[in-house]
Specification:
Elements: E1 3-4, E2 10-11, E3 13-17, E4 20-21, E5 31-35, E6 38-43, H1 45-48, E7 57-60, E8 65-68, E9 70-75, H2 77-85, E10 87-88, H3 95-108, E11 115-120, H4 133-140, E12 145-149, E13 155-157, H5 159-162, H6 182-193, H7 198-214, E14 217-224, H8 231-243, E15 248-253, H9 260-268, E16 273-274, H10 308-320, E17 324-329, H11 332-349, H12 351-356, E18 360-363, H13 369-377, E19 381-384, H14 387-392, H15 398-403, H16 405-408, H17 414-420, E20 424-426, H18 437-445, H19 456-463, H20 465-470, E21 487-491, E22 495-496, E23 518-519, E24 529-535, E25 538-542
Parallel strand pairs: 3-7, 4-8, 9-14, 10-11, 11-12, 14-15, 16-17, 17-18, 18-19, 19-20
Antiparallel strand pairs: 1-2, 3-5, 5-6, 8-21, 12-13, 21-24, 22-23, 24-25
Helix pairs in contact: 2-7, 3-4, 7-8, 10-11, 18-19
């Protein structure tokens, strides 16, 4: 029954049966048929018998759950791969352990021109300080080291790394032995990453793509730009991903657009938008997010990199040239600059055109009723990372240390965004927090601030359909006939309809309600295990011995 497509690929027909198929087309479905890259049929076990003799393959699910694949709507792919294959201090809990890891890594990489590492976070270190430059010099034997903080908005470096950038002490963001921020950070990062060989870069990118596939992720939104990576890195990643069967990579290049020529240059790179990390501000952890009132633990309001006028110019130009715009904005002053700028652009080019363009805002952590209303008014996608709250929320977390408990309790208000009708797309910002869709959905459903919680179903939609809609793929991210054959198989426990708080809109748990169940994500329980990931009908990950 297999055929050949116009491109010479074999079109196979596959029957999956004996499981639980998560589909709005049939909430009781246990079987699915795919033909080539599309879903052909979804239904019951009894009806599946009629397909069994006419397909190329029958997959016995043995009770496995079938879901649409996930989209991670904010990733730094090469940096993720470097963390997976190199020096990653994520989870290190003491200064001594950090220095030991750095020393061991330096010894293991004698040929590296610059040592690259990521992930330090002193929030809960008993020493309550970062390594000094002298300590880093000693741990590396004096070699150049670039070591980004977990939020990637500041970095520690050795003396020899500073020497790679003449005049660094004159750049904004250089402050003696303190972590580098702003221009000084960007200059050292660019110099350090320029030492990556094409082979090392490709190794890191392949590792990140394979890791994503192992988590049931079929689509990544790469958030790149001149202040983050390089054009060579960006185009090499898009080329590498296009040559494989998956995951797909949708590239965003964060550079301001003021003309058709600017838009054409960004399209020529292969980008789907001038968005992602176009910085309006920095991060809370590095105290560079732009606030309307000073930090609780520092006498300043952070850094604003782009004002409302700059936002307006970018949004208007992108809208007029048919390009998706977007921004990185975390602090309340930064988010207000975005919404003020989008409003000004809408007055210039028309609200309907702005809404139709699906512009987006990354992170959007410190929101007010006014800015949430503006997101809804202009159909701005909130590309958010629930793992941030899991990592740094709560009464004694980093957010509370930076902002005080009252302001910190207002961060990441997913329920308010959902009630207002704001499109949500979930991601990780990996390597800032690890890729892991089910963990992200759990973090949103069990937000550390109860009034911000959303249902598991709402989080699941944001991590499947939400990310695909953000790039204009409205027919994807759901299992229905005619949709792309992008799906994952999971080993999991009992399926439930879960709303962990009475303040969250609930659905009936009665099977007659027709609401398909999802895994129980109560904290402490085991998360679903990915058995297989399929993209366009082709298997891109299969768990060993399954």
């Amino acid at each position: 029954m297999s055929e050949r497509t116009a491109h010479g690929h074999e079109t196979r027909t596959v029957l999956l049966r004996g499981g639980e198929v998560h589909s709005p087309a049939d909430p009781f479905a246990t079987a699915m048929v795919t033909q080539g890259g599309s879903i052909a049929w979804i239904g019951s076990e009894g009806a599946a018998d009629s397909f069994a003799d006419g397909v190329d393959e029958v997959v016995q699910l043995d009770g496995a759950l079938v879901t649409p694949t996930f989209t991670d709507a904010h990733v730094h792919t090469t940096a993720t791969g470097l963390a997976l294959t190199g020096l990653d201090l994520t989870g290190v809990v003491t200064l001594r352990d950090a220095l030991d890891r750095i020393r061991d890594y330096a010894a293991s990489r004698p040929a590296d021109t610059v040592l690259l590492g990521h992930g330090w976070d002193t929030t809960h270190w008993p020493e309550a300080r970062h390594p000094s430059r002298a300590e880093l010099d000693d741990a590396t034997g004096g070699r150049p080291l670039y070591l980004s903080r977990t939020d990637v908005h500041s970095a520690l470096v050795t003396t020899s790394a500073l020497e790679l950038v003449p005049g660094i002490a004159e750049l904004a963001g250089f402050a003696g032995d303190e972590p580098l921020t702003r221009d000084a950070h960007h200059a050292v990062r660019e110099r350090a990453h320029s030492t990556l060989t094409p082979a090392r870069r490709a190794e890191a990118q392949r590792a990140a793509l394979a890791h994503a596939a192992s988590l049931g992720i079929s689509d990544l939104h790469e958030c790149a730009g001149p202040a983050i990576s390089s054009e060579d890195d960006f185009t090499a990643l898009l080329s590498l991903a296009a040559q494989g069967d998956g995951p797909r990579v949708h590239g965003y290049w964060a550079e301001p657009v003021t003309s058709e020529a600017d838009a054409a240059r960004i399209r020529a790179l292969g980008a789907v938008g001038a968005a992602g990390d176009l910085f309006v501000d920095g991060s809370l952890g590095s105290r560079t997010a732009h606030l309307s009132e000073p930090y609780a633990d520092a006498p300043h309001t952070g850094n604003g990199y782009l004002d409302a006028a700059g936002v307006a110019a970018h949004v208007a130009a992108c809208t007029e040239t048919g390009l998706q715009a977007g921004f990185h904005a975390i602090g309340d002053a930064a988010v207000a600059a975005v919404t003020d700028g989008v409003r000004a652009a809408a007055e210039r080019v028309g609200t309907d055109r702005v809404r139709a363009a699906r512009h987006r805002v990354e992170h959007a952590e410190m929101l007010s009723e006014e800015t949430i209303a503006a997101f809804a008014e202009f159909a701005l996608t909130a590309s958010v990372q629930p793992a941030f709250d899991a990592a740094w929320g709560g009464m004694d977390g980093m957010y509370a240390a930076r902002l005080g408990q009252e302001r910190a309790a207002g961060l990441n208000p997913y329920a308010a965004l959902q009630r207002a009708g704001v499109p949500l797309a979930f991601g990780s910002d990996s390597p800032v927090t690890p890729m892991g869709p089910w963990a992200a959905i759990r973090a949103a459903a069990f937000h550390r601030t109860p009034e911000h919680r959303i249902s598991v179903r709402g989080g699941f939609t944001a991590h499947t359909r939400g990310g695909r809609r953000a790039v204009g793929s409205d027919d994807a991210g759901v299992l229905v006939p005619g949709a792309p054959a992008d799906y994952a198989l999971w080993r999991t426990g009992e399926l439930v309809v879960q709303a962990p708080d009475l303040r969250v809109a609930n659905w009936s748990t009665d099977p007659r309600s027709g609401t398909p169940g999802l895994p129980d994500l109560t904290p402490g329980g085991q998360l679903p295990v990915c058995l297989r990931t399929v993209v366009r009908g082709r298997t891109v990950h299969e768990r060993p011995n399954e």
